[in-house]
Design goal:
The complex is a heterodimer of chains A (381) and B (353). Chain A has twelve helices and 16 strands. By secondary structure, chain A is of the alpha/beta class. In chain A, helix 8 links the parallel strand 9 and strand 10. Chain A starts with a helix and ends with a strand. Classes of the chains: A alpha/beta (381), B mainly alpha (353).
Chain lengths: 381, 353
């Protein structure tokens, strides 16, 4: 037993030494840190983003004549772990840039670290405005909650002719709260009527029964219901609303675009409308065509998720910034990133504003025939 | 002054000196890991006070941490940066202009957590065993849900950022040592010995004239106070807090630490905090791609370290059924005993040849 344990220990140590050699970067390699939840609650989202980043790395393995190496670290969907993982990328792996993370609060935990180390970070799908606020070194390729809320409010008033709306928000989810708040602002501004939001209901992640909220809404009889939030809960809300006899159209956000939304909601989610980043039917750049073809080659018959496309975009944006900066120096890459304008990404032409947030077009989709189908296209303001 | 006390003081001095030196030598990654060890030790110690020393099964630590962390986050963010963060609903005017130094905010967090524990202690501590665990778990979730819904105070689900970040090892280790010493003094006093008596047998303890409820609530409140301090340091170390941080699963980290270290051992708790925090980081090489003789070994991918970590924990639990230290404390005598045992082993082997 003792011999066996000693042997095991020796093997472990040897392995740690070996892996040390593998990851120590030399100067002719550019390392990009990938900082994602690969275990824990958010692992599914993290994996989707990593798939996009890896695909981009295969297609564009070099910049400035140097090989680009990805260093993936798992942040375990835990905030303290996320901060340590980011510090590890910066200090141990000496990365030139960081991509990530799925989940805004995990990205926020890395905020101070990248700022202190002057290593630029690009988030793929973290939509909370606080991520990039007051942080010169954090950028993102997705649009933020205010834009998405506004897009849906405009859609409701102009396309559906809605005069009144009800909001159901997932109060424990920063994304849902943000979207709902900006929808409300924009909707009341367009209708010019402060009381046009007739009802506002709150629920917690994991709730199963929404009849109380829905009964209240039914009495107020709004023209449209805006219910951004987690896909399972949202699908249940729509299902229960239809069972209560509410025929009002439902609007939501990009989180709905998952197969689970359709399987949980079934026939009842038919006609639900939401905004998202990307659709096959709305290919605006040559990069998107390339991405779709390559993704199809690797995963035949699988639809790429929007976050996969965003992960891909985060990678090619960093490469582009390194090329433009003609340097691998943190502050130089940062400056190049900050001046990004009209970058031809998979998810459309991307410009970064003063906060480091992407300004880009949104796609509106709906559920028809048990599938997500392209409906409309909204230009960035 | 006895030899023991002198040794303890020397050890404290040495740790603080080491923290001071390491603070200026180490890179920010190693510092962060070591700081996290000390903060986890504070929180695990507070949990051990209730679970290990008083024999009550409480799972409310995440909630008390949340109170401490939010006290620090709300009151230490510079006033001029607050409006930007609270963009959905402005911060409540009563607190919007109060900015406190970190130490005051930490103590405030501790006191608030203690006060909350005092209030819920009256109904909750009438329960025993599993029921107490469920009730404390419930209250910890209640705290989180309150923080999620008080948009104008805690910024709700969006969380608070721009908390001045704390990376000073000396400060964090000083806090950890103060907590450790206070708890040590408490547990060696007659008041603290009564906790252990309650743990061993409530009826006997009561027959010996110990006021059960008074001691239980004291233990619960003191534990919440330390957890509040630990939570405050945790928030300051991360520089941002949001309610999702403080899900009940966070408590399990500390349950793991105290079970591994030994229920009822303070030094065991500290050792386990270091082993678990550093171990998780050290095992990261399992997550890297490994290339042996030119071929990539497929199982070396992110997530493997969690598997290895679990196996190691199971091995430890199998060999040390009462945790690493049981109810014993690390002492000079113990180290001496260990050294002589190892020497003895060597001798035996030598004889065998």
């Amino acid at each position: 037993m003792k011999k066996a344990s000693a042997l095991l220990l020796a093997a472990l140590l040897a392995m740690s030494a070996l892996s040390g050699c593998a990851s120590s970067g030399s100067s002719d390699v550019i390392t990009i840190g990938v900082f994602e939840p690969l275990t824990g609650d958010n692992a599914a989202g993290g994996e989707l983003e990593v798939a996009g980043i890896e695909l981009a790395n295969e297609l564009y393995p070099e910049v400035l004549g140097k090989k680009v190496v990805l260093v993936k670290v798992d942040n375990k969907s835990d905030k303290a772990e996320a901060a340590t993982a980011a510090a590890r990328l910066v200090e141990q792996n000496k990365v030139q840039a960081i991509i990530g993370s799925w989940g805004s609060s995990l990205s926020m935990a890395a905020g101070n670290i990248v700022m202190d180390a002057k290593i630029p970070a690009v988030g793929a799908s973290c939509t909370n405005p606080l991520v990039t606020l007051n942080n010169d070194y954090y950028f993102r390729v997705c649009f933020i909650d205010p834009f998405q809320g506004t897009v849906m409010a405009n859609y409701a008033t102009s396309k559906l002719g809605a005069k009144t709306a009800a909001i159901i928000q997932e109060v424990s989810n920063d994304y849902s709260v943000g979207l709902a708040s900006f929808f409300e602002d924009s909707f009341t501004k367009t209708t010019g009527d402060a009381s046009s939001i007739v009802e506002k209901g709150n629920y917690q992640t994991g709730d199963k029964d929404f009849t109380a909220i829905l009964t209240n809404i039914k009495q107020k009889n709004p023209d449209v219901i805006f219910a951004p939030g987690n896909f399972t809960e949202s699908a249940l809300i729509i299902k229960q609303a239809r069972q209560l006899g509410i025929t009002t159209p439902f609007l939501g956000g990009d989180t709905w675009e998952t197969p689970d939304f359709l399987s949980v909601g079934g026939a009842e989610v038919e006609g639900a409308v939401f905004s998202t980043f990307f659709d096959k039917a709305m290919v605006t750049t040559s990069e998107a065509t390339k991405f779709l073809a390559e993704f199809e080659k690797k995963n035949p018959g699988v639809e790429p998720a929007a976050v996969t496309a965003l992960g891909y975009d985060a990678y090619i944006l960093i490469l582009d910034a390194i090329k433009r900066a003609n340097s691998t120096d943190g502050p130089a890459i940062r400056d190049a990133l900050a001046s990004t304008s009209g970058f031809q990404a998979v998810t459309g032409s991307t410009t970064l504003d003063a906060n480091g947030d992407a300004v880009k077009d949104a796609v509106i989709k709906s559920v028809t025939g048990g599938k997500f189908t392209y409906l409309d296209y909204v230009k960035a303001q | 002054m006895s030899k023991k006390t002198a040794f303890s003081i020397a050890a404290i001095g040495a740790i603080l000196l080491l923290a001071l030196v390491l603070n200026s030598v180490l890179d920010s990654y190693s510092k962060r890991v070591l700081n996290l060890c000390a903060i986890y030790a504070i929180i695990a110690l507070s949990l051990n006070l209730v679970n290990g020393f008083t024999g009550m099964f409480s799972l409310g630590q995440a909630g008390f941490m949340a109170i401490g962390a939010y006290a620090v986050a709300i009151f230490t963010v510079p006033v001029e940066l607050r409006a930007q963060g609270f963009y959905l609903e402005p911060m409540h005017p009563a607190i919007a202009n109060i900015e406190l130094p970190l130490i005051v905010a930490l103590l405030l967090g501790g006191v608030l957590a203690g006060a909350f524990a005092f209030v819920i202690g009256f109904p909750v501590l009438r329960l025993r065993g599993d029921y107490l665990a469920i009730a404390t778990l419930g209250f910890s979730e209640i705290i989180r849900i309150i923080f999620t819904n008080t948009q104008s105070i805690t910024n709700g689900a969006l969380g608070i950022k721009n908390v001045p970040s704390l990376s000073n090892m000396f400060f964090i280790y000083l806090a950890a040592i103060i907590v450790f010493v206070l708890m040590r003094l408490l547990l060696s006093s007659s008041f603290g010995r009564a906790f252990k008596a309650i743990r061993e047998d409530e009826i006997v303890a009561e027959a010996m004239g110990i006021n059960l409820f008074k001691h239980k609530i004291a233990s619960f409140v003191i534990s919440a106070f330390f957890a509040g301090i630990g939570g405050g340091l945790y928030g300051a170390l991360l520089g941002t807090v949001d309610p999702k941080n403080f899900m009940f699963t966070l408590t399990y980290n500390f349950v793991l630490i105290i079970v591994l270290g030994g229920l009822g051992s303070m030094s065991g708790t500290v050792i386990a905090s270091f082993i678990i925090t550093i171990g998780m980081e050290w095992l990261r090489f399992f997550d890297d791609t490994l290339i042996l003789f030119g071929t990539e070994i497929p199982i070396f991918r992110p997530g493997l370290r969690m598997v290895v970590f679990s196996i190691l924990l199971m091995v430890i639990v199998l060999f040390f059924q009462k945790g690493l230290m049981g109810q014993k404390e690390l002492s000079v005598d113990m180290v001496k005993g260990l050294v002589s045992r190892v020497k003895g082993l060597g001798k035996k082997r030598g004889d065998g040849k």
